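STRUCTURE:
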């Protein structure tokens, strides 16, 4: 932010300097300005124009001698007052990019027994050093050599394995210290980096996973590392950690805890809330603070509070790798939630220390974009920053073998970044999933290149959370009292017909996988808590049936179903809408409540099994949806949803009323699911009871994989 001091100077181009003088500082007047470098050389400036702002005068000046990038300059006004000349918007210019961009340059720490090479990119730096620490904490300083495109490097001889280090450099007149942003090995609270090499770690082998035939085969389940095992006395030896997330023993199996529980649900993908290093939990006291983790501190390192020892940089790497390995062995693929849109602390962010203003969106006046509403927005367009983000993403695939990325506030990023990440990821894994929040955020990125759902056609391999589906099936997100269709809002029936078919008639998305259908995620009230308000006065049993119906609509709609952890049993956060820092009490998975609501879990497992066994619920093209699905209604109240392929025809009834209806199928069908147990296993005249969800199968070829009709317990109290 500019205009904090009475005199400020910004180098915004090779021939453009902007000077701000406060009005009560010499009345904001100066007839002349010039720059002086650290060797005493004068660089004259010519005032081109002067603009009056609210508190300052803004002088735009031309530069009358060549500027040397990598030199410090000081501004002098006519009163011999001085201010550091800050290289700011110049780093975003085409001339700067042409002169200094080096996409093939290597950055980070490169270890061997004979020597370790340290390399970073900082064209603005006047000097740079590597500071290696001895065992007793003393500093050994190694000056780095500058190369043509602003690269710095130094070779340190001898075996430096395990030593901690940081960079100290001078940029824009100040001496800065930072961890190595390109190094996966980091100390506690992103404070320092370690010389090490991934090839030396005992990382598990990759587990071969059967690729999905279509992305619409996925059933995504969002979960927090911490929440899954935070409840006390559940038999987990390492609660709230990577280890605990996949820990299994006799107790967890018998009580269906953690991974033992995940394996029974019928999901295909676990989407983990942020696991990359975030700043809102003190790793030294990991249980003192709670946070979801949407506060990135480093994109190359993992979160230390989830490791068994945050002081040991290798622990979080080994334990995370083993966690992914164990999930894969259990048949569950892993999606990571990446927060590439903003950072926790802009000034402490390593790339910002090394190259100020390069990594963040700002306008011509030096104001920072705030489309994320977090005070800063990542600029994904500068080549070296894009290279950094892509490298961070690919490392997660190459090292840890993850299976997908979900991008937080994706609309702050640009379409080229998303397309490149998708291209490289799918080269590695053809069924790799890429999707995100495609909201059209008010950032400084031009609307036509934002990675928003408005531009979905420009991102052929990227999916989007469907707010259209959410608002119809969940109900109005801004008003808890407004129910969705399954909660009894019959005015939404026609819209429910539309979203069940991936809104193809509205041409919202050009492929079914782009519609990620959800009613609940970590943000906002849980579905259960919303319906406490939207269905006020109704019994708990009725609200359970409504939530089962809601879950069925998510699971059976064309597109990709997305479930938030606990949605299957009516998770509550005690009517709080945003619990991102509200402690384990509000956020933990309550297995005791899960047990009390077990009929809902049984229903969810049956519904998920049906989805997986019947491919017509996940058509892979819009044309198939148009020709192989249909909707109708009974008396403008009950939604009748049909989908078919060459092997099957499925008919699903959703009745959000307290009335009973009948429907003649014209031929007998096989009953797969009936919440009210109103029908025989083979039925033609279907009874759809109050608040019932009924699923009927007609086979055209071989029987489906699901052997027995999936009935659910009748008692919902």
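SEQUENCE:
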């Amino acid at each position: 932010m500019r205009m904090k001091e009475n005199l400020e100077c910004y180098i915004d181009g090779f021939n453009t300097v902007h000077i701000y003088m406060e009005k009560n500082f010499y009345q904001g007047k100066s007839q002349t300005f010039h720059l002086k470098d650290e060797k005493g050389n004068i660089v004259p400036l010519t005032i081109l124009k002067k603009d009056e702002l609210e508190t300052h005068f803004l002088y735009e000046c031309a530069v009358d001698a060549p500027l040397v990038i990598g030199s410090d300059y000081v501004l002098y006004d006519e009163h011999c007052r001085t201010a550091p000349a800050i290289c700011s918007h110049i780093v975003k210019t085409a001339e700067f990019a042409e002169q200094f961009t080096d996409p093939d340059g290597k950055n980070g720490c490169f270890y061997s027994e004979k020597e370790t090479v340290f390399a970073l990119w900082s064209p603005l730096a006047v000097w740079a050093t590597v500071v290696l620490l001895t065992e007793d904490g003393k500093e050994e300083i190694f000056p780095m050599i500058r190369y043509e495109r602003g690269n710095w490097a130094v070779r340190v001889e001898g075996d430096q394995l395990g030593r901690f280090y940081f960079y100290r450099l001078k940029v824009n007149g100040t001496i800065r210290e930072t961890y190595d942003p390109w190094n996966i090995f980091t100390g506690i609270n992103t404070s320092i980096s370690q010389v090490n090499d991934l090839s030396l770690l005992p990382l598990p082998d990759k587990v071969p996973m059967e690729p999905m035939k279509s992305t619409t085969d996925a059933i995504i389940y969002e979960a927090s590392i911490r929440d899954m095992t935070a409840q006390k006395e559940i038999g987990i030896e390492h609660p709230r950690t990577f280890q605990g997330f996949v820990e299994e023993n006799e107790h967890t199996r018998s009580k269906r805890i953690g991974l033992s529980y995940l394996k029974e649900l019928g999901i295909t993908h676990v989407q983990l809330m942020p696991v990359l290093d975030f700043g809102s939990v003190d790793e030294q006291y990991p249980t003192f603070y709670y946070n979801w983790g949407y506060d990135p501190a480093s994109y190359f390192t993992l979160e230390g509070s989830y490791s068994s020892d945050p002081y040991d940089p290798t622990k979080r790497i080994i334990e995370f790798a083993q966690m992914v390995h164990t999930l894969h062995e259990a048949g569950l693929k892993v999606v990571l939630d990446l927060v590439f849109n903003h950072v926790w602390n802009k000034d402490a962010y390593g790339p910002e220390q090394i190259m100020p203003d390069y990594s963040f969106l700002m306008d011509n006046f030096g104001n920072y974009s705030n489309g994320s509403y977090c005070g800063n927005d990542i600029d994904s367009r500068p080549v070296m920053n894009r290279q950094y983000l892509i490298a961070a993403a690919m490392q997660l695939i190459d090292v840890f073998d993850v299976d997908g990325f979900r991008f937080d506030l994706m609309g702050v990023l640009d379409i080229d970044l998303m397309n490149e990440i998708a291209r490289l990821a799918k080269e590695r894994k053809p069924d790799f999933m890429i999707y995100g929040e495609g909201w059209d955020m008010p950032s400084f990125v031009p609307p036509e290149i934002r990675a928003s759902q408005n531009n979905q056609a420009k991102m052929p391999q990227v999916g989007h959370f469907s707010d259209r589906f959410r608002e119809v099936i969940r109900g109005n997100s801004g008003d808890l009292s407004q129910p969705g269709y399954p909660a009894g809002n019959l005015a939404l029936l026609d819209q429910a017909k539309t979203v069940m078919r991936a809104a193809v008639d509205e041409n919202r998305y050009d492929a079914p996988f782009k519609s990620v259908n959800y009613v609940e995620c970590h943000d906002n009230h849980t579905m259960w808590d919303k319906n406490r308000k939207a269905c006020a006065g109704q019994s708990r049993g009725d609200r359970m049936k409504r939530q089962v119906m809601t879950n069925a609509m998510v699971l059976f709609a064309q597109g990709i179903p997305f479930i938030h952890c606990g949605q299957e049993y009516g998770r509550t956060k005690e009517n709080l809408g945003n619990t991102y820092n509200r402690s384990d009490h509000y956020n933990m998975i309550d297995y005791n409540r899960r047990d009390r609501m077990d009929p809902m879990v049984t229903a969810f497992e049956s519904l998920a099994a049906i989805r997986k066994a019947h491919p017509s619920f996940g058509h892979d093209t819009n044309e198939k949806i148009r020709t192989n699905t249909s909707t109708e209604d009974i008396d403008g109240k009950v939604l009748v949803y049909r989908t078919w392929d060459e092997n099957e025809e499925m008919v699903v009834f959703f009745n959000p009323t307290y009335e009973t209806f009948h429907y003649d199928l014209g031929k007998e069908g096989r009953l797969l699911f009936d919440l009210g147990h109103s029908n025989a296993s083979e039925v033609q005249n279907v009874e759809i009871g109050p608040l019932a969800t009924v699923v009927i199968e007609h086979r055209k070829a071989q029987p489906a994989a699901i052997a027995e009709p999936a009935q659910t317990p009748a008692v919902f109290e």
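REMARK: The mean pLDDT is 96.
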